[in-house]
Design goal:
The termini are far apart. A hairpin with a 6-residue loop joins strand 1 and strand 2. It is built from four helices and two strands. The chain has 84 residues and is mainly α. A two-stranded antiparallel ribbon has the order 1-2. The chain has a domain of 38 residues. Bound molecules: zinc ion. The site of zinc ion has 7 residues, from loops.
Length: 84
C-alpha cells in the first residue's frame, strides 16, 4: 500500500530541451519576414494611387509623402518631403 503522495508526486516533464531548441532558432529575420513586416506597415497606412493626391492631403497635416515599395502607392510620412 503506497502513501498518497507517491501517486501525486509525478516527476515534472522537463521543458529545458524544448526551450533550448527555441533559443537556438532565434535568427535574423528572413526576407519573407521582412516583407511581411513591410506589408503590415503598408496595410495600416492610408494609401494614395497618385502622388498629387497624397501631397495635397499630406500638406494639410504638415506631413510628407513617400512612394511605397510594397504596394506601389503613396503614404504619409512624418519626415519632411524630399525636395527632389
Ligand atoms: Zn504601401
Amino acid at each position: 500500500m503506497f502513501p498518497k503522495f507517491y501517486v501525486m508526486a509525478r516527476p515534472q516533464r522537463s521543458k529545458r530541451r524544448k526551450s533550448l531548441s527555441k533559443l537556438s532558432e532565434q535568427k535574423e529575420p528572413t526576407e519573407e519576414q521582412k516583407l511581411e513586416a513591410q506589408r503590415k506597415m503598408c496595410g495600416e497606412k492610408k494609401r494614395f494611387a497618385f502622388k498629387g493626391d497624397a501631397e495635397r492631403l499630406a500638406a494639410e497635416y504638415g506631413l510628407g509623402v513617400y512612394k511605397c515599395l510594397v504596394c506601389g502607392g503613396w503614404h504619409f510620412t512624418s519626415k519632411p518631403p524630399d525636395p527632389t
